[in-house]
Amino acid sequence: MWAVGGSFSVSGVASAEQLAGIPSPGRSGFSRRGDIMIGGIFPVHVDAAKAETLFTARPVATTCQTFVYQHFLWLQAMVFATEEINRNPNVLPNITLGFHIYDSCVMLRRSLEGALWILSGKEELVVNYRCQRKPLLAGIVGEASSTHSIVLARLFGLYRYPQVSYFSSSPVLSDRSQFPSFFRTIPNDEFQSRGLAQLVIYFGWSWVGLLAEDSDYGQHGIQIMKEQLIQAGACIAFSENILTGQLKKNAVHLATLIKMSSANAIAIFSLDEYLLPVLDELIWLNVTGKMWIASEAWSTSTILSMDKYSMILKGTIGFAIHSGEIQGFKEYLQGGNPSRSPGDLLSGTFWEEAFICTWLDLNTFENKSKSCTGLKLRDGLNNVSHYLTDWRVSYNVYTAVYAIAWALRDLFLCRAQKGPFLNGSLLQCAVRAAPLDFEKLLKKDNLPAAFSVSSVLRVRFLTIRVSASEEDKLVSFFHPKFDLI
Q1: Widest CA span of the chain, in angstroms?
Q2: Domain 7-186+391-451 is in which class?
Q3: Which of 359, 369, 310, 317 is nearest to 337 (CA)?
Q4: Any idea of the CA torsion for 425, 426, 431, 436, to the nearest 10 degrees?
Q5: What SS3 state is found at 412?
Q6: Taking Cα atoms as reference points, which of 188, 244, 234, 190 lies closest to residue 210?
Q7: Which residues face 460 on adjacent strands?
Q8: Rounded distance, CA 220 to CA 306, Å?
Q9: String of b and e for 13-28 (b: at least 16 CB within 10 Å)?
Q10: Which of 133, 225, 388, 479 is deepest in the core (most CB within 10 A)?
């Protein structure tokens, strides 16, 4: 099954859905062998085409459509971090980290499918069974959505597998009694909600509209903000949900409500992909002159930097995730090539989008005639260059991988010199260790400061203001840090 030093794709493997007569959307993931494995779940695609179920015929398979460059960089940050750790003898000497990476396509059933694939350790998903004694699974990096992370945390928590999320910020996940093995490298949304309320109060807006996606992230975030605004004496013009299961129909209602409302300040807690249909309807209705207060999930989205949104989003303010530098990451991306990870179909898709070309061994499209073979990524970056500068979530992913690695290093030192760790080599310690041992070490404060991970973090945001340039393009300006204790 394993290809030494390489990867394999799991696309097309029969799933439980297929066995039950429900067509699978096609699994998309790949692995790289190592002495110890880390799982990763990322929503590389965000737009799932769902056909109406009539119950008179077999359901049509759901397909993942829109490839998001930013989200692909999250995945690449995990690959880069593992390769960097493997080259550094000071982190895990004589041990190679490998990974299982899966594209969830912002679908809960795919997130669960990916989790079970990672846990079973086999190319073919085997439910409720770990098929390999080696290599050891140390932990899982993911998911992005708070709702998905909550579901996965209940699954991983059964076996105390450490789960480190890079983008799930719901306050619910801080409950250690419910989610004992969940960690994250992004602040709890309770702090952001308070901060956004303070921002609204600072500017003197007392008549405010509220929108939130109907998920744990949106509902908890907007509720805390609403309470803070009312407590400060502001009035709520309306508080509505973005129905993620009925986006197009719901978008018409929300856009009409916003157009008719006298509230000019509107706060939105939502992922960018759920907000897009609402913005499209607002453009259709020619709604302008509104002030948008953005949560971190969409404030820096490259999707929303498209020219058609420039007039409607001009003047947006909000918070952005604090970022750090990933040395060598840009050069790593520029020197990338799908041949570096055989079987990684996602890298092939990224390459096609960057060059508008076709791989002969991948699915082709009629409007693409140029072959990708022989091209160098740095020559095709004009199409995707603006996606290679915002590494906020990528940095969270990078930090998550290092947090797991440093916890493993601490475990492998066999400091206790007793029980299963007596007179053990580094790899022997890993084999004898249980997931609970990793979890305990992730909770400790002995990790290097640059790679700390916790259920509660010191909160630091950047304030962002969006303006239109002379060419009517959206330009983001980042202001001094907004610290919350």
Answers
A1: 73
A2: alpha beta
A3: 359
A4: 130
A5: helix
A6: 234
A7: 483
A8: 29
A9: bebebeeeeeebbbbb
A10: 225
Check: pTM over 0.85? Answer yes or no: no
What CA–CA distances, in Å, run from 362 to 11, 346, 372, 441? 12, 11, 11, 43
Residue matched to tokens 């799930």: 168
Residue ranges of alpha helices (H) inside 167-324 are 189-202, 216-231, 247-260, 272-284, 310-313
Six token digits for residue 40: 């990763």
* φ, ψ dihedrals at 318, nearest 5°: 175, -165
pLDDT in tens, the chain (485 residues): 333 334 434 443 444 444 344 444 455 788 899 999 999 999 998 866 565 666 777 766 667 878 888 888 999 999 999 999 999 999 988 889 999 999 998 889 899 999 988 988 766 666 665 555 667 888 999 999 999 999 999 999 888 888 999 999 898 998 989 998 899 988 888 889 999 999 999 999 999 999 999 999 999 999 999 999 999 999 999 999 999 888 888 999 999 999 999 999 999 999 888 999 999 999 999 998 999 999 988 888 876 677 888 888 888 888 888 778 899 998 888 777 666 666 666 777 777 777 777 766 544 444 445 667 666 655 556 556 655 667 889 999 999 999 899 888 877 765 544 444 445 455 555 545 555 555 665 665 444 444 344 444 444 455 555 544 444 444 444 444 444 43
Cα 343 from Cα 346, distance rounded (Å): 9
Examine domains 7-186+391-451 and 189-315+459-484 and report if their fold is the same: yes
Neighbours of 422 (CB within 10 A): 11
- Is domain 189-315+459-484 classified as CATH 3.40.50.1910? no
Instruction: Enumerate the β-bridge partners of residue 32.
Output: 7, 99
Residue 398, SS3? helix
Task: Tell me which residue has tokens 């061994």.
Answer: 361
How far is 170 from 180, CA to CA, in rounded Å? Answer: 15
User: Cα-flanking dihedrals φ and ψ of residue 58, to 5°?
Assistant: -60, 135
Domains of the chain, residue spans:
7-186+391-451, 189-315+459-484
What is the number of alpha carbons within 13 Å of residue 209 lying toward its C-beta?
A: 18
Interacting residues of 456 by C-beta distance below 8 A, sequence separation 6+: 174, 188
